[in-house]
Every structure is written in C-alpha cells, then in structure tokens.
Amino acid sequence: MKILLLSVALAVTTLPLLAQTPPPAALPSPSPAKPPADYDLRWAVKIPMRDKVELNATFYLPKTSDGSPPKTPAIFTLTPYISDTYHARAAYFASHGYVFALVDVRGRGNSGGEFEPFAQEPRDGHDAVEWFARQPFCDGKVAMWGGSYAGFDQWATAKELPSHLATIVPVAAAHPPLALAIAINNVGETYDVQWLTLTSGRAGQQNLSGDQKFWRSKFLDAYKKHIAFKTLDSFVGNPSANFQRILKHPTADSYYDAMVPTREQFQKITLPILTITGQYDGDELEGTDLLSRSSRERFA
User: Which of 2, 95, 110, 210 has the smallest number of CB atoms closer than 10 Å to its CB?
Assistant: First the structure.
C-alpha cells in the first residue's frame, strides 16, 4: 500500500520529541516482522481507571547493560483487537530502547468493564497516559502509536489533554460515526455486524470475522428474506447490545460528538502529531478528516 505522509511539517517535529531522552546504544535494525528476543516482559499489569475498572497491559521493556530498570519515554497502543496482535511491533520498539505497552481497551482481552465501541477511550486513554508517566520506568514522556481503532483512540485521548502526552502517531485512524456507517443513503451497512462479531466477548474472533464466504452467504440470505435490518445481529447468530445501541444513532449526533475532539478541543491540542494513511486504505477519508479538522482549527 502506498503510504502518504499527510502532514510533513508535523511529522518532522514528532520524532525529535521522543529523541530528547536518548535511548540506550543503537542496536541493529531488524524487521518489525521478525523482532529480536532482546527485551524483558511484564505480563498482566493492571492499570486503574478513575472508576476503579482496570485495563490490562503487557509490557515490553528494553534491557540495560547493567541490568538496572530502564527509564525511557513510554509508548503504548490501546486496542480492542487483543494486545497480542501487536506483539511484533512492541518487541521491535523494546529492542530499540523504548518501553512499550500493549493495552486492551475496556471490556476486551483481559481488561475489566464492558466494551462500548469508541465511547470509553477518551477518558481511559487519558488515565492510562497519566498512569504511565508516574511509573519508575518512564521519564515523564508518553506517546501513543497504532492504526485504525488504535489510531482513533489517540485522537480521543489527545482531546482530553493529558499533561504527559508528548506525541501521537495515528495510522489510518477510524472516525466515528464514519467508522460505524449504519446507514448510507438510508441503506444499512451490514459490515457493522461482522466487525461487532470480531470484537465480541473477550477473546479474538479473527477467524470467524475473516470467513468472508460465511458473511456473504448470510448477508445475501438476509437480503433475499427481506429481514428488518435491526434484526441482522440475531439473524447471523450473534445478538449484540452494541449493534442495537448504535442503531439508535443512525446519523452524527451528540453520542458520536463526545468521542472525537470538538473545535475548541482541537484548538487546545498543541502536541506534535504524525498522522499516516494510505491511498487505498478503508479509513483514508476518516483519518484525513481528523487531520484536516485538526489543521484547520489549530493553525487557522
């Protein structure tokens, strides 16, 4: 996929920020797909939120020459797709001298609470940033990295203005309500049920969600039987409270407005941002809209 760096000026300022705290001596540059096993692990670390719910994190820590605890900027990804899916990237960052954490969003993986797509991440992201900054391995700078949903929740976190958030790097960021396109020209978007199956329960559902033959067959059958769109979740065999919830918000309204930065919040976001998307990426319009709104309000 052709990658477009949509904001060169912002990109230039992002990386030096993290570089202000020098990492350990440079290591060889392995591919992220084949990271070296040169890191330490902390499994099932619990991060308390303001309402006492705990998010689950897996920590990848760089090794130090004398065996002492590291003290570097902390980078984390907040994802509904189970933290293990980002393992190679976390190992890559840790092998290059940075503390990296993979965090399951509320209600997914080993995190507590209930999963409500896009709704909890602004507050939870803020609380996670401030928690990371207080840990002995962190030098006070916290960054976020990730794509799609994990790109959205960086913007959602930034709008809450956590004081220790140094930069965000959203890749092909999703943007509700565009990411939950319930109705396009008054025609329901069947993919929502497929995606909500992917993110159902606590465990990963990649194989079921990725079975395109099954989904095409079910959606075609629903069409032929003229079922009501609101019953599609039950028709495919996965009744979903989240599907029923978003059906009550078929267009942009205050429910979605609370998930992304307002004009006033964009104006207060001063941290450097590197945002990336691709010409043929499904979230290109969403990520581009967030960037254009940010640029319009921040630099007007």
Answer: 2
Q: How far apart are CA 145 and CA 79, in angstroms?
A: 10
pLDDT classification of 266: cutoffs 50, 70, 90: confident
User: What's the whole-number mean pLDDT along residues 189-212?
Assistant: 94
CB within 8 Å of 296: residues ≥ 6 apart: 266
Question: pTM, whole model, 2 decimals?
Answer: 0.83
Mean pLDDT over 46-57 rounds to 98
Render the burial of 80-100: b for 16+ CB within 10 Å, e for the rest. bbbbebbeebbbbbbbbbbbb
Contact criterion met (CB below 8 Å) for 121 and 89: no
DSSP per-residue codes, 35-79 = --S-EEEEEEEEEE-TTS-EEEEEEEEE--TTSPPP-EEEEEEEE
Rg (CA), the chain: 20
Centroid of chain to Cα 8 = 22
* Sheet arrangement for strand 138-147: 3-5, 276-278, 165-171, 138-147, 72-79, 99-104, 54-62, 39-48
CATH class of the domain whose range is 3-177+257-298: alpha beta
Give Cα 242 to chain centroid, integer Å.
Answer: 18
Residue type, 103: V
pLDDT tens figures, 63-101: 987 878 889 999 999 999 999 999 999 999 999 999 999
